[in-house]
Amino acid sequence: MNSENQLIKIALVSMGCPKNLVDSECMMSLLKSKGFILTDNISEANVAVINTCGFIESAKKEAIDTILSVGDLKKPNGNIDHIVVTGCLPQRYDKDILESMPEVDAVLGTSHYKDIADVIASFYGDRSSDNDLVSEAGGIDHLLTEREITTTGYAYLKIGEGCRNRCSFCAIPIIRGNYVSRSLEDILEEAKSIVSRGYKEIILAAQDTTNYGIDIYGERSLTKLLKEITKLDGLETVRIMYGYMDGMDDDLINEIKNNNKIAHYLDIPIQHGDDTVLKAMNRRDTVEKITNVINKLRTEIPDIIIRTTVLVGFPGETQEMFDNLISNLKIWRFDRLGCFAYSPEEGTPAYDMDGQIDEKTKASRCEKVYEVQRTISEELNKKRIGTVTKVSIESISDDGIFYKGRSYGEAPEVDPEIYVAATNGELEIGKTYEVKIVDSSDYELTGVTL
To answer: Residue 178: is it exposed, middle or buried by C-beta count within 10 angstroms (0-12/13-18/19+)?
Structure first.
């Protein structure tokens, strides 16, 4: 540990998905181990690290706006000496960032997170580090079993990096490289560390969790991982995010059904509901396969909550193809749904496809999807009225009247919270209570403690 580093305060801004948050937490741990001081107050920081998302155009715009905003806090206007931009955006546009944004002093791509401490040290004497550390994406060297966890009550656990799927619209393989699974032993070691610090819920994350193990064990190994991780004493819940329909095999479904530590909740982005569009997207699913998996999940696990994501406005998507998506969404009736308008990404096959859709049509189709989903969500939420569920209390509502929390059916950040009225004294943040659902709306549930 360098004692001089203790005079340097660093604020880290994490943008994008939970997978990016894990990378940020690992960088925080590396910085702390080198003696740097971490601060949540960016106005008092000497160095700002901005860990960006560059998945779609809106994320790139948000990242650029954040960089410029933080740039306004550099000396002499503020206290910041240096800005480092890390993550997806510099992995794709490192030279552009350094040339067009003088506010930025260094960039680190996704393959160089582990160099963050050396780069910052170079600002204050050791000039051995390059200010442009970007190379071919890929690898899991930066993932740590001991990291700074910034979430409350739950922790994400990244089980792999990159993606072996090649969806024609997606830049993730360009940014993150091919899929690389962490070893089972490494994951379990980190899980033990997480549980030892009092976290009761672990959320498994990767670009495709159902592909876990194929590259290192020669077969899908998520079921095996679930069997091992749920043996940990003190762990109450494991939640699976970012799966694929073709990875929902019988063994995995049975494990979710029969293992009481696995949340009856799945996040499975389907992207579309028309076979022609799915094929053009280079997805392995078909409408028939998606239907069969959903039916099987709901037959085997009647209380399963399924979340998905769809993409509208893909090149060549006709009105008829979009209508097929809407019709199938009404059949499939997902509990939760997110919708994105297609964003043309350089380097992807879809970027140069014929039949690009105008922005107005994309926005209109996205709104139509949400209109349909609001009705579905309202109907499904009504069915939960009168049921009793365990709710982990995470905060208090702004008006101070209700507590807010999550049951097995709500993932943090992406799903609505449950508003809870305490009937027998105050509730304790971080604890779990039996709650009876008494009211609902399209995106809200209200309950009372028993």
So the answer is: middle
Whether the Cβ atoms of residue 181 and residue 216 lie closer than 8 Å to each other:
yes
The Cβ-side half-sphere exposure at 324, using a 13 Å CA radius, reads 16
Q: Which residue has the tokens 């329909």?
A: 245
101-119, pLDDT tens digit by residue? 999 999 998 888 999 999 9
Question: Which is the CATH superfamily of the domain at 154-382?
Answer: tm_1862 like domain (3.80.30.20)
Domains in the chain: boundaries:
3-133, 154-382, 388-449
Q: Which residue has the tokens 């971080």?
A: 430
Fold type of domain 388-449? OB fold (Dihydrolipoamide Acetyltransferase, E2P) (2.40.50)
Residues of the chain with pLDDT under 50: none
**Is this model's pTM higher than 0.85 or not?**
yes
Q: Where are the beta strands (DSSP E) in 159-208?
A: 160-161, 180-181, 201-205
**3 state DSSP class of 408:** coil
What are 445's strand-pairing partners? 418, 440
List the structure tokens of 143: 């993932």
Homologous superfamily in CATH for domain 3-133: Methylthiotransferase, N-terminal domain (3.40.50.12160)
* Burial (CB count within 10 angstroms: exposed 0-12, middle 13-18, buried 19+), residue 215: middle
